[in-house]
Amino acid sequence: MMPVYRAFSRRFIILSVLLGLLLSVLGGVILYKKELAVIDTDFKRDVDDKAMALERELLANLEVLFAIKSLFNSSEEVTASEFENLASSFLARHHDIQALEWAPKVTGDRRGEFEVARRATYPDFEFTERASQGRMTKAGIRDVYFPVYFVEPHKGNEAAFGFDLASNESRLSMINRSIDRDLTLATKSITLVQEVFDQKGFLIIMPVYEGEPSTVNKRQEKLQGIVLGVYRVADIFESAIKHTGAKGIRLLLKDNTGADAEELYANYSSDEALGSLQKGFSYSRSLKRIGGRQWTLVATPSQGYIAERQSLLPFLVCAFGSIFVLVGGGYIFLATEHSTMVVREAIEKSRELDETKLALEELSFTDGLTGIANRQCFDIRFEEEWLRALRDGTSLSLIMVDLDNFRLFNNTYGYIGGDQCLRDVANKLALTTNRTTDLVARYDADQFVILLPNTDEPVLLADKCRINIEKLHIPHQASSVSDYMTISLGVVSMVPTKHQSQADFIFNVEELLLQAKELGKNRVGIARDILAANRGDILKFQYSQSRSTE
Ligand SMILES: Nc1nc2c(ncn2[C@@H]2O[C@H](COP(=O)(O)OP(=O)(O)OP(=O)(O)O)[C@@H](O)[C@H]2O)c(=O)[nH]1
């Protein structure tokens, strides 16, 4: 029973520990995923903030162009200083504008007139275009020019001053589109004429007409020129982003207008390797369409951004949960083992106690000197057998034995010799009885009893005992009967009835033993009814009886 219980409790503890570990890991994973979800939401919000800042920045720059356009709309002829004053005031506030420019529409026949007018202030002024090797050269002959006539700030934009925007096919087509539809348009990324380093820039152009022409022809006819904003992508980007809060976000600005997407600017180095977690957070946010261009912000968090927002909580939940489960499981396991041990010890103790009790019981029923049953044992067995015989209607016989002249034996051979004699006699009496149900017990000092349940010939057995003791040849010089130790016996046998008592039964056998003593010892005292019942053996008893008379 115990091993089954132990195996069950061990299996239960192991399963509980495994379940606890699983729950700890699960708890950690759930918290980890929740944290990632929060980071994802925060990240998208931060990117949206930056995209909106970029939109605001572009719209603010458009407003500047509208203000300059208004200047040209409201004046017959805008002078260089008027343009300079207005543009400077905007440039002072908008540091991300590379230049604000005015490019009038100049027909081929008026080119000289325009060049001369500007040479009053800038003697080297002429209409220019970009030569094939990238350097600036005098503009070729064409019907219409759009030369950069005013440019603020002048310093740093000298290369653009006089540059004919119509010198480039694709730019001219965009200008014409803007003019025909009265559209504010932004170019795709270009390398600015004033650019020294390899940075991407773009232009926003805004046509200025006389009045408000509503058809294509009238627009072409009434066109005065073009207001231009010149920008470096990086400047616009950094200026917009620098006031937004979150740091550690890798941003890539792409121009997705048309079929070919183009990368405009990235605020990180492209050879930086990305982790899978970073890639998982990647987020694209399209900006409002401005100047006909569709810009998109592609964002990925840096490792620092993620690390800053991750806590140790999921790990701690997992680690401490596991430790708690393991320690708890270990404690319960040890406690169970201990209690099992205690129970096992208790069972062992109880078994030992039972054994001790049995041994004590055995001792209490054993005569200390001879090792056969004692008086107490006899009394209990006698009671039991009496009741059994009474119930079953069977016979019960009792032989009482007394050593002859034992006092004299003691006097002659001493108590130690007497003790040995008692042991020898007891041993021989026990050997003489055959049945397991027979009981030989020491009754008193030198007296023994033999209880014989359901025995037909108790007298024969009694005489056999007498003969066997005499045959032991235990010397007894002082005996009045023989040279050896002899015994006298009384025998009673009856089928008990409820009118008879155990005491009478004992009394009778004592009487018969006394008679045997009185008749001369070394003989069996038999009741008359037994003599009658055992007629066939009468001679033997006569022999026994006759011994005493010799
Ligand atoms: N050695 C020894 N002697 C004992 C023990 N118990 C009793 N005796 C002695 O046994 C003797 C019993 O003597 P009795 O039965 O009275 O008389 P007896 O000498 O046997 O005489 P009869 O019975 O008439 O033959 C006494 O001397 C007791 O002291 C014992 O355990 N050991």
From TrEMBL:
- Positions of transmembrane segments: 312-334
Checking SMART domains in the record gives: CHASE, GGDEF
Question: Where is each GGDEF domain found?
Answer: 394-529
Catalytic activity reported? 2 GTP = 3',3'-c-di-GMP + 2 diphosphate
* Alphabetically ordered keywords of this record: Membrane, Transmembrane, Transmembrane helix
In the UniProt record, does the keyword Transferase occur? no
Record-annotated CHASE domain positions: 74-241
Predominantly, its location class is: membrane
Q: What class of enzyme is it?
A: transferase
What EC number is given for this enzyme? 2.7.7.65
Cellular compartment(s): Membrane
Query: What InterPro entries does the database record attribute to this sequence?
Result: CHASE_dom, CHASE_sf, Diguanylate_Cyclase, GGDEF_dom, Nucleotide_cyclase, Rev_trsase/Diguanyl_cyclase
What NCBIfam families does this protein's entry cite?
Answer: GGDEF (TIGR00254)
Q: What is this protein called?
A: diguanylate cyclase
Which lineage do the record's taxonomy fields give for this organism? Bacteria, Pseudomonadati, Pseudomonadota, Gammaproteobacteria, Alteromonadales
